């Protein structure tokens, strides 16, 4: 039949007709994406009344956890309608980049990933400057000194293991390169997970680990899962009994009955703070700030602890089974170094560990 | 009046079919990202796409032929039930099938939980091919079975009378006569599998096995590409070329159809003899495993609180089911999916009926072109339609709204209504309309009172099919969702991607049971009508024929 031929001709002629279209570019009329466009935004103070309206949150929080956060926030702020878009940090960054190309960011708040991501947005003037109501009560290391974003939970990456399959768990990162663990390990993909990318940079910059350690890890037949969720799943169901994963997922699963436990490596743990920031283009900065204020408030942090997160303030305790904040040995690496090395670390990881 | 109707239909088609597809093609030709794409593994992805689609199509057709012979032509025990069971994958969206089967066979899955032995880590090319085969076997079967039913009994009887063994009869008479149907089933399935997204993303990607469809998704979502839409448009072109090649092969194969008159009676059943018992047992086991295996796997994960928990009476819980049903994301997912599916059904029904009437009852020189245009999206993988609407959304400001999902649904599914409507309309004689005209009715009025009224039942069943297809859809919406417009398919996909397998299984289970119930309601009563409906709709549901 001529159908197929017609199809080819139709498409080719259509293509020629419209040849060399480029991607829809940023429309200059949009303008309101820039920081100049927001008027009273900068002056709105922290703990102010939310007023109402709706806000959109882009987040990489697990769906249920963010649903609970929104429900708790709405108890105190019933007039603010919160729209949530949940996706991996990589997906969110892609979405934000695409939105910037044609207009403005569709979100009022970004609650995701790691400080370097926010540093990059800050450098592009995309974030609103403001200091959350309770900033003084928070861990100093999670509050941006310039006041553009604030950490909302301390999320260390740890070694987790299946208690049914492993009697003596590894106690250090170095130990993971032991051939005894060949074929036993699972970890998230730094190419997809923001936390994993951050960790890769920290490992690369930590004395005693570095490039050699990442390469040795690659020799050990590590299963690279897409993100932390599937990683914890593989550890819990025993298909890969030892893994590298964020600690709260392990506590979540253990609470539900999975045979998993955490081992805090002796070298210390890299951590991200899941920062929150308000976009400068937010149409409802008051509502957005109220939401961020809530995240770090005593109430919001108590909920975080109930959700198995380590909090960013000292007055709300820690989740059951988690070390207290002063017992925790955190790997602190200067942010600029992490930002500078992250790309190289991810590339190295892809080359050495990914199949 | 008809010219006006024709014009408005053309305008609608230009908006929902031509523009998005032209967008993809024109954007793709705007710049050259080929070197980057080649480095990113375009060639591997293309090879994986072709190999997985071709091998699964081959296996599906071979399996379908065996199945057709066994359940249509042999004295297999309980063949009606075997046929019905083997057709169930048709009712399950491929991505739900992927969630279920990995939950059955891989480590940590049902078999592993029960026996401590994990039969198959199905991640990778093998798993993709297996699942594609399983999900396309019913469609292949319906095509082959229809052809088999038209093989005249007397030819076979004559051969038998002349002393041929059953094997000779099959090889010399039956097989040559159904060969065109086998080939047609092959291309149909292959083109459709080429564009499948759910199976390769859930089963292939975790093992680094990318196809063109998953590569498009990754390029759009990774945030590492500079001009993601243009880049994915270029991958889309590769898919489009492969799809067109498939359609051309199909057309070449269909050029010499074997015209067969429907035999007065169905051929004598093939006697299996001593093999009857063992073959029946094997067929029953396969049919039961295919049907119940995935269902049980979903059920187990749904009622276990967390991975690694042993399955005992004490550990069973309904918490997962309760939490996924009450989760705000599920509620909004259901609302969105139902609204979008309902809207798509309505729009597709209107457009489809108009196209059906114009191309059968009021033929003009542009009718062939109109029919071609509306059926075209069936040869285009869903992801390309989605990319087209993404680009369109960026240009029109509809980005981040539900409208682009609705638009994509109308692009992809209008053909279902058209195909459903054209049959009855074409079979109708023109005398009814003439009678109406003679009685003084205007052209539109006479169309409305005769053809359209008579075509309404077919329109409704076509629209119902659109609704059922759209409500369980993932491929289009996964690229087009925005805050507040996540569809149900995307919600399940999200749970699975986030590693909450207990939640994704719980929601899949509910989804599957509701889906089966819905299809059972939509399918006409009466076994003959039901089979005809299934045969017609399944090829549409796979969405390929031009």
TrEMBL record, chain A:
Domain of life of the native organism: Bacteria
Biased composition (Gly residues): 44-54
GO molecular function, one term: metal ion binding
Sorted UniProt keywords: Iron, Metal-binding, Signal
Chain residue ranges for the region called Disordered: 26-56
Chain positions recorded as Fe cation binding sites: 248
PROSITE patterns for this protein: PROKAR_LIPOPROTEIN
Residues spanning the signal sequence: 1-25
Name of this chain's protein: Iron(III) transport system substrate-binding protein
Organism (species): Ornithinicoccus hortensis
TrEMBL record, chain B:
Matches recorded under Pfam families: BPD_transp_1
Domain of life: Bacteria
Signal peptide positions (record): none
Subcellular location: Cell inner membrane; Cell membrane
Membrane topology: Multi-pass membrane protein
Chain ranges of the ABC transmembrane type-1 domain: 46-250, 334-522
Listed transmembrane segments: 7-30, 50-72, 84-104, 124-148, 169-191, 227-249, 281-304, 338-358, 370-392, 398-418, 501-523
GO biological process, one term: transmembrane transport
CDD domains, per database record: TM_PBP2
Main localization category: membrane
InterPro entries xref list: MetI-like, MetI-like_sf
Keyword flag Transport: yes
Cellular component, GO annotation: plasma membrane
Keyword terms of this UniProt record: Cell inner membrane, Cell membrane, Membrane, Transmembrane, Transmembrane helix, Transport
PANTHER family: INNER MEMBRANE ABC TRANSPORTER PERMEASE PROTEIN YDCV
Family, as annotated: Belongs to the binding-protein-dependent transport system permease family.
Protein name as it appears in the record: Iron(III) transport system permease protein
Lineage, highest ranks first: Bacteria, Bacillati, Actinomycetota, Actinomycetes, Micrococcales
């Amino acid at each position: 039949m001529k159908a197929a031929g017609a199809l080819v001709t139709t498409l080719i002629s259509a293509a020629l007709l419209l040849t060399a279209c480029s991607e829809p570019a940023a429309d200059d009329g949009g303008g309101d994406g820039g920081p100049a466009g927001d008027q009273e935004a900068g002056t709105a103070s922290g703990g102010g009344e939310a007023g109402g309206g709706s806000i959109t949150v882009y987040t990489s929080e697990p769906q249920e956890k963010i649903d609970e956060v929104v429900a708790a926030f709405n108890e105190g702020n019933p007039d603010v309608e919160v729209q949530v878009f949940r996706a991996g940090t990589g997906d969110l960054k892609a979405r934000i980049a695409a939105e910037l190309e044609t207009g403005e960011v569709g979100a009022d708040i970004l609650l995701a990933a790691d400080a370097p991501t926010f540093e990059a947005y800050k450098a592009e003037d995309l974030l609103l400057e403001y200091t959350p109501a309770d900033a003084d009560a928070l861990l100093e290391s999670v509050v941006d000194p310039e006041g553009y974003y604030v950490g909302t939970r301390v999320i260390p990456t740890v070694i987790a293991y299946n208690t049914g399959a492993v009697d003596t768990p590894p106690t250090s990162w170095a130990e993971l390169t032991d051939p005894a663990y060949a074929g036993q390990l699972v970890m998230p993909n730094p190419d997809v997970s923001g936390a994993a990318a951050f960790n890769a940079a920290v490992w690369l910059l930590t004395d005693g680990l570095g490039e050699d350690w990442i390469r040795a890890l690659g020799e050990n037949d590590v299963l690279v899962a897409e993100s932390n969720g599937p990683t914890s799943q593989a550890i819990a169901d025993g298909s890969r009994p030892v893994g590298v994963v964020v600690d709260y997922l392990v506590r979540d699963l253990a609470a539900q009955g999975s045979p998993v436990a955490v081992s805090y490596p002796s070298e210390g743990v890299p951590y991200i703070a899941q920062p929150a920031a308000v976009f400068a283009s937010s149409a409802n900065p008051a509502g957005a700030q109220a939401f961020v204020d809530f995240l770090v408030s005593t109430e919001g942090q108590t909920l975080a602890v109930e959700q198995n997160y380590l909090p960013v303030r000292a007055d709300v305790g820690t989740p059951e089974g988690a070390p207290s904040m002063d017992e925790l040995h955190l790997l602190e690496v200067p942010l600029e170094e992490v930002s500078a090395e992250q790309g190289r670390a991810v590339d190295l990881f892809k080359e050495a560990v990914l199949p | 009046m008809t010219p006006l109707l024709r014009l408005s239909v053309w305008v609608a088609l230009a908006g929902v079919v031509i523009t998005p597809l032209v967008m993809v093609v024109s954007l793709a030709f705007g710049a050259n990202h080929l070197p980057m794409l080649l480095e990113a593994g375009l060639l591997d992805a293309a090879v994986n796409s072709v190999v997985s689609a071709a091998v699964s199509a081959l296996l599906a057709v071979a399996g379908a032929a065996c199945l057709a012979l066994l359940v249509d032509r042999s004295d297999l025990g309980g063949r009606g039930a075997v046929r019905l069971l083997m057709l169930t994958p048709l009712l399950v969206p491929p991505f739900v099938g992927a969630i279920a089967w990995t939950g059955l066979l891989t480590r940590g899955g049902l078999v592993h939980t029960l026996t401590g032995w994990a039969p198959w880590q199905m991640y990778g090319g093998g798993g993709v091919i297996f699942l594609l085969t399983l999900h396309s076997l019913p469609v292949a079967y319906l095509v082959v079975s229809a052809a088999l039913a038209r093989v005249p009994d007397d030819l076979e009887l004559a051969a038998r009378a002349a002393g041929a063994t059953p094997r000779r009869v099959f090889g010399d008479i039956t097989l040559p006569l159904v060969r065109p149907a086998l080939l047609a089933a092959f291309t149909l399935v292959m083109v459709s599998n080429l564009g499948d997204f759910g199976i390769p993303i859930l089963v292939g990607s975790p093992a680094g096995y990318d196809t063109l469809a998953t590569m498009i998704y990754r390029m759009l979502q990774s945030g590492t590409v500079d001009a993601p839409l243009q880049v994915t448009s270029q991958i889309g072109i590769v898919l489009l070329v492969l799809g067109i090649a498939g359609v051309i092969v199909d057309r070449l194969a269909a050029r010499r159809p074997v015209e067969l008159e429907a035999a007065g009676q169905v051929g004598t059943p093939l006697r299996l003899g001593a093999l009857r018992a063992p073959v029946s047992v094997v067929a029953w086991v396969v049919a039961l495993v295919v049907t119940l295996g995935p269902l049980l796997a979903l059920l187990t994960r749904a009622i276990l609180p967390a991975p690694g928990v042993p399955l005992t009476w004490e550990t069973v819980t309904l918490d997962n089911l309760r939490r996924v049903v009450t989760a705000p994301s599920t509620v909004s997912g259901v609302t969105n999916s139902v609204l979008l599916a309902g809207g798509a059904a309505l729009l597709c029904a209107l457009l489809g009926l108009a196209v059906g009437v114009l191309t059968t009852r009021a033929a003009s020189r542009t009718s062939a072109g109109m029919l071609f245009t509306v059926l075209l999206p069936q040869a285009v993988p869903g992801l390309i339609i989605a990319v087209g609407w993404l680009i369109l959304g960026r240009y029109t400001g509809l980005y981040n709204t539900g409208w682009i999902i609705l638009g994509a649904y109308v692009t992809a599914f209008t053909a279902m209504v058209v195909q459903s409507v054209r049959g009855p309309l074409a079979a109708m004689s023109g005398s009814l309309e003439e009678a109406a005209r003679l009685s003084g009715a205007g052209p539109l009025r006479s169309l409305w009172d005769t053809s359209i009224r008579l075509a309404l039942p077919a329109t409704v069943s076509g629209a119902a099919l659109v609704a059922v297809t759209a409500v369980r859809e993932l491929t289009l919406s996964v690229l087009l969702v925005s805050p507040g417009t996540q569809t149900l398919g995307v919600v399940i996909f999200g749970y699975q991607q986030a590693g909450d397998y207990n939640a994704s299984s719980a929601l899949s289970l509910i989804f599957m049971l509701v889906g089966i119930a819905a299809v059972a309601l939509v399918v006409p009563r009466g076994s003959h009508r039901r089979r005809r409906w299934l045969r017609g709709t399944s090829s549409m549901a796979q969405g390929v024929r031009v």
